[in-house]
Amino acid sequence: MEYLRFQIWTCRLRGLDGVIDLFKLDKFEKLSEIPLNTRVLELRDKVQDSHFEVHTDGSKVDGGVGFSVCILHGEIQHKIICKKLEPQNTVFQDELAALGEAVDWAIENKKKINIYTDSRSSIETLKSYGTRSKFVISIKNKFCLAEGLVGLAWVKARVRIPGSELSNHFSKLASVEGEGMYIPFPYSFVKFTLKKKLLEV
């Protein structure tokens, strides 16, 4: 973090202030200020008597970033949600945003759902005690609010599961023509941009 601050200071010194809008970056919370039930999030693989099966996926295609949430009732497509993020966002953020969107839908409609994702890293991050990212914590809070409504399980990528193939297809479409959605940029974007700009000076 100190090195990152030094790079930002160097950019300002060299007249590059304004290259990065710091207000668009993800923030970090103090662990002591995060509620215990959010830090120690209990995720169930499956809820009984679910109303819908939900498959989520995120894609980055030619610089476009998007995700899909495919809500199925049996084999019938009940609802498809497609959102497009900024090119500065990562696929990891994309996958988490998709999970958050699915949980929002369950809460809003008061329906039990089982979510399936091929992003193991997303599940591990949600279960992590030490996560401080404000964006990740916002997703964890949604799962807390949806207690008893949502199950979350990992499925292997590139396995011929109809729901997974459907979400993969629509996530690619979302990266091009999905409805716009804003989430904060990761710090990896800052490091990449600063390094690029410093080399140009």
Automatic annotation (TrEMBL):
One Pfam family linked to the record: RNase_H
Q: Mind listing the GO molecular function terms for this protein?
A: nucleic acid binding; RNA-DNA hybrid ribonuclease activity
Every copy of the RNase H type-1 domain together lies at 52-132
Q: Which InterPro entries match?
A: RNaseH-like_sf, RNaseH_domain, RNaseH_sf
Which stretch is the leader sequence? none
Q: What is this protein called?
A: RNase H type-1 domain-containing protein
